Amino acid sequence: MKTLIVHAHPEPKSLNGSLKDLAVSTLENAGHEVQVSDLYAMNWKAVVDAADYGLHASSPLKVARDSGRAFDAGTLTPDVRTEQEKLLWADTIIFQFPLWWYTMPAILKGWVDRVFTFHFAYGVGEHSDTKYGERFGEGTLAGRRALLSVTAGGPEPHYAARGIAGPIDDLLFPIQHGILYYPGIEVLPPFVLYSTDRMTDEDYADVAKAWKQRLLTLESTEPIAFRRQNFGDYEIPSLQLLEGLDPAGRTGFGLHVRG
Question: Which of 29, 32, 46, 184 satisfies CB 3.0 to 4.6 Å to 139 for a cystine?
Fold first, then answer.
């Protein structure tokens, strides 16, 4: 297994840093290949601008079109091209980050904004009466699997169905479905730690054991059963879920998960 770990925390000695290091050692000791993109250590540029596309940047800037033109010409900036090559190399991607203000840190979102360019991660495939491009189960990154490893400061009940923060699956849906599944990556159930601001050394021993277990079973873990776009569950081109496919009582994001 070839694994890319995309790590987003500014403190190397943080819990996230420890989990990243443990992932590297566990996977390598099991005979897997690992690459790490430590975004803060890389001083990753987190904002899209015309400099990303060089001569292919238009005025006014059109991010989707211009990023696609630069990708097609092979003239994206070296840092972006390197990350795209890592994604194409990997068969598994682990995203290690803290949940900040209900989402990923800005530097990680900036990695997505710059790396997932037009024609690389989206804007591919035919549009017809039966297909609406290759996305949500198809796409340029199909065949890969991803796992979110997330730390949250609040207690687990805060992120339950009736919790004040909302269900953790709903909070992570824009990342898991809207960013990762969109270009075809299969998404594994996340590894989420709660009450991390109160974690003790004794707690970490149990966490480390659980994290190792998840890492060593990545290849046998079933992905989240997100519905595929072009395989009969949605009307095209409206992309509305067909009547009769929604499980009783289920609404919102949950409609887009089978079963």
Answer: 184
Intra-chain end-to-end CA distance of the chain, in Å = 29
What is the average per-residue pLDDT within 37-51? 97
| Cα–Cα distance, 18 to 15 (Å, whole number) | 5
User: What are the distances in angstroms from CA 138 to CA 1, 73, 106, 167?
Assistant: 21, 24, 27, 27
For residues 140 and 133, the answer to whether their CB atoms sit within 8 Å is no
What is the reported pLDDT for 241? Answer: 94
What value does the mean pLDDT take over residues 190-213? 93
Q: Name the residue among 181, 74, 183, 170 with its Cα closest to residue 121.
A: 183
